[in-house]
Design brief:
The protein is α+β, with helices and mostly antiparallel strands and 157 residues long. The chain has one domain: Nucleoside Triphosphate Pyrophosphohydrolase (Alpha-Beta Complex), CATH 3.90.79. It contains two helices and nine strands; from the N terminus they run ββββββαβββα. It has a four-stranded mixed sheet, sandwiched between helices. A three-stranded antiparallel sheet has the order 5-4-9, with no helix packed on it.
């Protein structure tokens, strides 16, 4: 796969390269006080349960995009508490190549689906939906692996 498209300048006929880059996105793992996490049921393809998230707007930081997307899709105001990772597999999104910056966040309240989310609700980390959109099952697996000792320590206090 070529990293660019060749365009032709309409004035001089010279070939101009237009580089193809992944679309920058964010995903947010929102943890509620009972240690459940919030997932959304997508309104648009690809269908299924997913982490709240979306595209980073031009001129917007990844952190601001994460807080904005969380509010739009779940109605919750979040406090970002850390970076889970960056996911960039070219096949993670069946529509096109995306690069996602994934944040962990805390929030309080009851989630309500909005914007691109038909529904938003909490799930226990040990009772996640079988089918999830994108690579969100892998992201949650990584989150559980990295933070499981943190959760166990908190539970034992």
């Amino acid at each position: 796969m070529s990293p660019f498209d060749a365009l032709v300048c309409p004035e001089c006929g010279a070939e101009v390269k237009r580089y193809k880059n992944p679309f920058p996105t964010v995903d947010i793992i929102i943890e509620l006080p009972d240690r459940s996490i919030v997932l959304i049921k997508r309104k648009n393809p690809p269908a299924g349960w997913a982490l709240p998230g979306g595209f980073i707007d031009y001129g917007e930081s990844a952190e601001h995009a994460a807080a904005r997307e969380a509010k739009e899709e779940t109605g919750l105001r979040v406090e970002l508490i850390g970076l889970v990772g960056v996911y960039s597999d070219p096949n993670r999104d069946p529509r096109f190549h995306t690069l996602s910056v994934v944040f962990a966040a805390k929030a309080q309240g009851l989630p309500q689906g909005g914007d691109d989310a038909a529904e938003a609700r909490p799930f226990s980390l040990d009772n996640l939906p079988e089918e999830m959109a994108f690579d969100h099952k892998k992201i949650l697996h990584d989150y559980i692996q990295r933070y499981s000792s943190h959760h166990t320590q908190k539970a034992n206090k």
